[in-house]
Amino acid sequence: MDIAAELEKRGAAVEVASSLRQALELVESDGLSAAILDHGLRDGDSSAICERLNERHIPFLIYSGYSDAKGACLNGPLLEKPARMEVLILTLEGLLKSRQSSRH
Predict the structure, then answer these.
(1) Where are the domains positioned within the chain?
(2) For the whole model, what pTM was predicted?
(3) Are 72 and 54 in contact (CB under 8 A)?
(4) N or C: which end of the chain has fewer CB within 10 A?
(5) Alpha-carbon Rg of the chain, whole angstroms?
């Protein structure tokens, strides 16, 4: 929740999911620019979410205490908990800039 509050303070529109099911619904949202995922969710891991984000060409990062991410999740940077807020923000900004430059 601290991450969401910090992103909103910086002008981002933020949606939060606390389960795999909710996240899989959110990943289909129009206008989704990027995602920050915790690999271990209460009802599964984020592998299916990573797969769908890859298919939709939406950048993401994994922010997790689990370092066993594999498959599609390896396409995003892994930041292990706890990471400084500024590191999260800079990593996310880098992903967004990379996405914008690849579209031009």
Answers:
(1) 2-96
(2) 0.86
(3) yes
(4) C
(5) 13
